[in-house]
From TrEMBL:
Record domain Cupin type-2: where: 40-102
Protein's recorded name: Cupin
UniProt-listed Gene3D superfamilies: Jelly Rolls
CDD domains the UniProt entry points to: cupin_HP0902-like
Domain of life: Bacteria
Length: 107
């Protein structure tokens, strides 16, 4: 079930989460045993350090460009692009510039 977001309305997903100086802002849309969906806004130079997810993680960049390191390989992902980070593979996310993304993890 979706939460923290309007239903039955056309939305621009990038507008559903705001930047904050020196922060990573997140907004959870779905969280259950099968699926997690979260919007993120990264300020420049903010990062989520290396970790692994318990499911396949799909990132779609909504604005700007993020740097993703997956299994030691670096990817620059820009607005409109998607990257899938496989389950149990270590990955990290870095704000190359300010950027927004939608993270969907399927368990």
């Amino acid at each position: 079930m979706y939460k923290n977001i309007e239903k039955q309305k056309v939305l621009h997903m990038a507008e559903q989460v705001d930047y904050q100086d020196g922060q990573i802002v997140s907004r959870t849309l779905v969280q259950n045993s099968k699926l997690s969906m979260t919007l993120f806004a990264f300020e420049k130079d903010e990062e989520i350090s290396t970790h692994a997810a318990g499911g396949d993680a799909m990132v779609t960049v909504l604005e700007g460009t993020g740097r993703f390191t997956v299994g030691g390989e670096v990817f620059l992902v820009s607005q409109g692009e998607t990257l899938i980070m496989p389950k149990d593979i270590p990955h990290a996310v870095y704000g190359q510039e300010r950027f927004k993304m939608l993270l969907t993890v399927s368990f």
